[in-house]
Automatic annotation (TrEMBL):
UniProt xrefs under PANTHER family: HISTIDINE-CONTAINING PHOSPHOTRANSFER PROTEIN, PHOSPHORELAY INTERMEDIATE PROTEIN YPD1
Protein name in the entry: Histidine-containing phosphotransfer protein
GO biological process: cytokinin-activated signaling pathway; phosphorelay signal transduction system
Function: Functions as a two-component phosphorelay mediators between cytokinin sensor histidine kinases and response regulators (B-type ARRs). Plays an important role in propagating cytokinin signal transduction.
Top-rank lineage group of the source organism: Eukaryota
Listed SUPFAM superfamilies: Histidine-containing phosphotransfer domain, HPT domain
A GO CC annotation given for this chain: nucleus
Keyword Translocase: no
């Protein structure tokens, strides 16, 4: 308190000069904060536009359908990290399924029932995620299993691996954009 009084006493009666200086500094800081918030909003809008364009491109390429954008929209109702987490979980499920199917294919005799179990899982995950082309590749494996065709299973599995690789590359780009959006959103809420 003594420090404040000594500072105010340097500005004459009642510290009026100090109050004016304080108001000017506060207005300056408020102006800087508003500029930072505007910049943050512009960056977020740019990233959202990039993400939207990536989604449109993925849809045009036939990798995903409208359900993919619906899944993305769920983050507004759940939490910002939802989409980042769901991409990682989806990729993990598909990678595990492809690995297990490959292992089964590499055995001497095929266990079609076990293969079908894994195919149902990854096909269902693909459909739920909106990865329509990948789901169709898994449906091809299912048809080859129903036909008891080892060669057909192998060809369809290779197609599924290629489809997943193409999708995974695009998802990686989406993930990078989404992580940047989450970071900016967090910074924006911390500044308020």
């Amino acid at each position: 308190m003594e420090f404040l009084e000594s500072q105010l006493s340097g500005y004459g009666e009642g510290g009026v000069g100090f109050e004016k200086t304080l108001v000017v500094h506060m207005e300056f800081l408020e102006s800087q904060l508003l500029d930072m918030m505007r910049t943050l909003v512009v960056h977020m809008e740019f990233l959202e536009l990039q993400l939207s364009n990536t989604f449109k491109l993925m849809k045009q390429e036939g990798l995903v359908n409208d359900h993919f954008t619906f899944v993305y929209s769920l983050k507004r109702n759940i939490e910002d990290h939802f989409y980042v987490e769901i991409i990682a979980e989806f990729c993990s499920v598909i990678q595990d399924g492809l690995k297990l199917l490959t292992q089964i294919m590499n055995t001497g005799s095929l266990n079609y029932n076990l293969m079908k179990e894994y195919v149902y899982k990854v096909k269902g995950s693909s459909l739920s995620f909106g990865a329509c082309r990948l789901a169709e590749a898994f449906a091809d494996i299912e048809r080859a299993i129903d036909a008891d065709s080892k060669e057909g299973c192998l060809e369809a599995l290779k197609r599924a691996q290629r489809q997943f690789s193409a999708l995974e590359e695009k998802l990686h780009g989406c993930l990078q954009l989404e992580r940047r959006l989450v970071i900016l959103a967090t910074e924006g809420t911390n500044d308020k």
